[in-house]
Specification:
Helix content: 55-70%
Number of strands: 0
Radius of gyration: 20 Å
Structural class: mainly alpha
Largest sheet: none
Strand content: under 5%
Shape: flat
Order of helices and strands: HHH
Number of domains: 1
Number of helices: 3
């Protein structure tokens, strides 16, 4: 395997691992008050793995110059968009 394919393979592998870990977490989610099928230690290991995967994905994006620092927006959060009055005046003129 050549070095040019290594980053693509790593990106695909990290993406697959992230999706799999998230699916495991979703599939084993229980209602409040019920005993979770995974031990607390296993849940922490999944969280730790997700943190490592996300950190590496961010590193790769920064090296490639594609990192955007975007954060998820939740539907129940109110978002406020700010703008300058000067910019508004420019668009109106």
């Amino acid at each position: 395997m050549s070095d040019t394919n290594t980053p693509d393979l790593e990106v695909r592998m990290l993406s697959a691992m992230r999706k799999t870990l998230i699916s495991v977490a979703k599939d084993t989610m229980t209602k409040p008050g019920l005993r979770h099928p995974l031990t607390e230690n296993t849940q922490k290991m999944i969280t730790d793995c997700l943190n490592l995967v996300t950190s590496r994905q961010t590193e790769i994006e920064k090296q490639a110059g594609t990192h955007t620092k975007m954060k998820p927006v939740y539907t129940d959060e109110q978002t406020v968009q700010s703008f300058s009055i000067d910019d508004l005046k420019k668009t109106l003129n």
